[in-house]
Write a structure and sequence with these properties.
about 130 residues, alpha+beta, two-stranded antiparallel sheet
């Protein structure tokens, strides 16, 4: 080097700025409030308007919560026609469909596992040679 001896460090300490889960910043300083002229008056006017409408947070604390308007009951009187609550029998599995013709003699696998039917007039060797 340039002749100066560096101090010997016994342990190297790596410092990083990791945050604890849930923290978004490392700053703990309290922020200044926004001191825009007229902000206090605007906030007071808004609170007054909320109170007039009946939706100020202080008023909502004591108000009973509802899930909205009640739904009209759409039931009607029976017309005398009998109805049934019975469920029919549960059917078993359907029979598998099986090819019963005589034209298709087999299946050939082409490019990218594409399966195609091989007819009587076709040669399976042709399908074996077809690529892409």
């Amino acid at each position: 080097m340039d002749g100066k001896a560096r101090p010997r460090i016994e342990k190297e300490i790596l410092m990083t700025m990791h945050l604890v889960r849930g923290m978004t910043t490392t700053s703990t300083r309290k922020r200044k409030t926004n001191r825009v002229p007229g902000l206090a008056k605007a906030k007071a006017d808004h609170d007054a308007w909320l109170r007039k409408m009946g939706v100020h947070p202080d008023q909502l604390k004591h108000k009973e919560k509802s899930l909205g308007k009640s739904v009209q009951a759409y039931t009607r009187e029976s017309s005398g026609i009998p109805t049934s609550d019975r469920i029919g029998p549960i059917e078993g599995k359907r029979a598998a469909k099986v090819y019963s013709g005589d034209y298709i003699v087999g299946l050939a696998t082409m490019h990218k596992s594409n399966t195609v039917p091989v007819g009587k007039g076709n040669s399976p060797e042709d399908f074996a040679k077809m690529r892409r």
